[in-house]
Amino acid sequence: MADRLVRISTSPRSVPIPPGGQGATMPMLPALLRGVIFIAVLAAPFVAALIAG
What are the TM regions of this chain, as residue ranges (predicted)? Predict the structure, then answer.
């Protein structure tokens, strides 16, 4: 019985969805933008070398 109470009390809590219906996409957009910028900065020297020949 005690381990059942521990399991129930440690289960993850549900997070309410904020109004507007865009709860998961709004925090994800800055992360995607940072990822795109990071990859672009890494790829820039290689692209420049390809263009230079």
Answer: 31-52
